[in-house]
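User: These chains co-purify. Model them together.
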Amino acid sequence: MESPLVQLKDVGFGYGPEPVLDGVDLTVGRGDYLGLIGPNGSGKTTLLKLILGTLPAPRRGEIRLFGTPAAQFKERWKIGYVAQKAASFNSGFPATVEEVVMTGLVARRGLWRVLTGEDRKAARAALEQVGMLSFKDRMIGRLSGGQQQRVFIARALVSRPELLILDEPTVGVDVQAESQFYQLIRDLRASMGLTVMLVSHDIGAVAHEVTSLACLNRRLFYHGSPDDFGTEEQLCELYGHPVRSIHHHHH
Amino acid sequence: MLDMFTYSFMQRALVAGIAVAIVCPAIGVFLVMRRLAQYGDTLAHVSLVGVAAGVLTKVFPMATGLVFSVLASLGMDWLRQRYAKFSELSLAIMAPTSLALAMVLARSEVMSYLFGSVVTVDNEKLYLIGGLGLLVLAVLLLLYKELLSVSFDEEQARVGGVPVAFVNTVFMVLTAMTVAMAMSVVGVLLVSALIVVPVATALQIARSFRGTLTISVLTGVASVVVGLVVSYWLNLMPGVAVTLTAVAGLLLVLGYKRIAGIEE
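Assistant: Joint model of the two components:
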């Protein structure tokens, strides 16, 4: 049987004495569309960093990626990652959309190798997939937030990953761009069989899209189908106070 | 008019100057993108201590300057990580301290390195400058894709599996080599002009990263060639003429854009 793409067993982590994550078990199987939900400060970002390898190994438990212990996992290109919109790039950076997308191939090519015409083709194919090919020669800083997000999704896709992780993808994006974004993810799942993990603080928006839901607030409160989730009791447990029910959400 | 270049010392100056003019802006593009524009200036000051040490110990000063520059680049990267919130502070302390120290160690020799001495480039210096230039350029081209990806978004590069720490260390050493080769030509006080000004000009014109790199290098080379001619005519120190030429180029581009009504 194929090992899950991501597997966390009893993971505990803290920056100080207070645990940020406590006894977290989480599995992402091939083809899953997982929504990882939790309020601000719930440990979502920490969990993400552990999976992405930007934090040292957890003090307790085990993380496996594609069956390999996270510390030994070398094929980072298998995981495509799209950071929050507010992420670290300088909007005055003088790079074209195509140049930005090609940076997604750097690690896969490896050190001392030059990117080729083949890589340029791959970049254009990825831009085509997200509907941004006609913008390839535009400067990245001149695009709108929603357009930049599509470019960054193309950058994550260009290395042909098996798992795509998106961190708060709809924060600061208008309603139209949001629905276009969810449509794009649906298309990518249908055309590439992509496994997707979507991290969000907003359960209402995500629950209708994903095939499985994981609710985190230091511990994992729920991990299963979104259809079986949503009692007042569970929401209270997750957020620590009553919130709107997910069934009020409109498309 | 160009009979000045029939003198062999001017030929050597031209070759050394062009080598420096290619490498400085190429390194400068990545420094500016990473908001480390001030970095080359500080490194140049620190390597001046190396030059002074070389003079004192009767070792080839450019070589000791190079060693100091490389060591300082590694030390400064360490400091930068320690004092991430005050990185300009550590730069601003190191530059004058180094200059003062170098002046104490070997005043007269150090003075000639402050503003450069393109016209006293002997064969020994020329070979070292040429060799360093080729080495820096080769490694820059080989690491181009990593440097672009790390400069654009270091966090994303790390997540994607780019060996960020390795790339950063190699880049710091390349910067140190560039500064060491450039300071003997244009001088410590003016190294940063050749690293930064052509990049500022290119940023006004270019529409891609590759374009920024190309225009920076072309602007750098033009500044050095024109600057050398001007220095010969007006009897200016070469580094001074080169710096003012580069700045004049930047002002021309800014002025043209303003008049032509090209909006950002």
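Chain A has one domain: 6-246.
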